[in-house]
Amino acid sequence: MRRSPPSTVSATSWGSSAGEDGAGAAPVIDRQPRDLPLDAHLHTDLSPDSDVAIDVYAAAALERGIAELAITDHVDFEPGAPAFGYATFEDRERVVRRAAERWGPRGVAIRFGAELTYDRSWEADIRAHLARHAYDFTIGSVHDRVSSPYHPGKVRGWVAGRSLREILAPAFDEVEAAARSGLFDALGHLDVVKRYVHPFVTKEVLAGAPELYEPILRALVESGTALEINTSGLRHPVSETYPSAATVARFRELGGRAITIGSDAHRAGQFGWALVDGYRTAIDSGFAELAFRRGGARVVIEVPTAVLAGPNGPGGHSL
Q1: Exposure of 78 by Cβ count < 10 A (0-12 exposed, 13-18 middle, 19+ buried)?
Q2: Which of 61, 161, 170, 300 has the greatest number of beta carbons closer than 10 A?
Q3: What are the residues facing 114 on neighbouring strands?
């Protein structure tokens, strides 16, 4: 039986000895996928935190047999946030559509998407933006606000003396609202907050409080929004997808039927990284299809059961 966490948290009691972002993470080994249908979360140099030209991803997809890509550069609505006004809709659409024309005939389908940062404070702005602009596929995600308590310089003080529910509330309350809003095709990296609170709150502690996830999962089921299995956590010190495999399985138990999978790459070497782990989680949780959109109605993409064998299996390359 899992031991219940303490009712309050000290700044030193919950976690491993791993340091800040990147420190303590497992060495990056070859976790590149082969012959998969979709990577639905990618950032190019039209995001402020990426330096990758779109053709770099397309060439990698062609080499590795990844049939379809969604380019989901950041769109922020809070003044002062990194992607606020960083690139215009017109510039982003032009770059992606032209790349789609270049690479489509070669066997790589490229879709024009966006990862829109959600907060209830600017939900009206998001609705207005989506009413004016047409994307093939949209991800709604909660990120750090400019004044976030999860900032590296603030998080130690934030967790000290607070219950787990109180620690997560600024993030999880917004994530639930995003799930209920019905604005997006998919909800991105549901519990990426575990990256921010690590190492003061570990993934094991979060796994011991599944009730904190229930309102978000139920909101997704009710709104029909897809749950993203985001594999970027497997290259972060938390060493776990956002959300965990157990949370994906619980989503299925609650009636969730729409999932998507993305590597959330921001660097060339991150393209598709550990994507097969996301596909394996989907299969193990009972999902046979991915939910996606190509500018019209939602479509489904079959999850290939062969993902568990061949070049993606443990004998094919390092996992």
Answers
A1: middle
A2: 61
A3: 73, 138
- Three-state DSSP class for residue 273: coil
Going by the DSSP 8-state scheme, the letter that residue 284 receives in this structure is H
How do the pLDDT tens digits run along the chain, 319 residues long? 333 333 334 333 222 222 223 334 444 445 667 889 999 999 999 999 999 999 999 999 999 999 999 999 999 999 999 999 999 999 999 999 999 999 999 999 999 999 999 999 999 999 999 999 999 999 999 998 889 999 999 999 999 999 999 999 999 999 999 999 999 999 999 999 999 999 999 999 999 999 999 999 999 999 999 999 999 999 999 999 999 999 999 999 999 999 999 999 999 999 999 999 999 999 999 999 999 999 999 999 999 987 666 556 554 333 3
The helix/strand count (H/E) of the chain reads as 10, 9
Go through 16-34 and write b for each residue having 16 or more CB atoms within 10 A of its CB, e for each that does not.
Answer: eebeeeeebeeeeeebbbb
Q: Is the dihedral of CA 279, 282, 288, 293 positive or negative?
A: negative
**All structural domains of the chain:** 39-312 (3.20.20.140)
Strands (E), 222-264: 226-230, 259-262
Per-residue DSSP letter, 136 = S
Q: Which of 187, 239, 146 is nearest to 40 (CA)?
A: 187
Closest CA to 229 of 128, 158, 170, 307: 307
Query: Distance (Å, rounded) from C-alpha 119 to C-alpha 198?
Result: 22
Structure-block tokens of residue 133: 């602009």
Instruction: Beginning with the edge strand found earlier in the chain, give each strand of the sheet holding 68-75 in spatial order.
Output: 39-42, 68-75, 109-117, 137-141, 186-187, 226-230, 259-262
> What's the CA dihedral at 54, 56, 58, 59 to 10 degrees?
160
Distances, alpha carbon 82 to alpha carbons 31, 76, 77, 78, 208, in Å: 29, 7, 10, 9, 34
Q: Which amino acid is at 85?
A: G
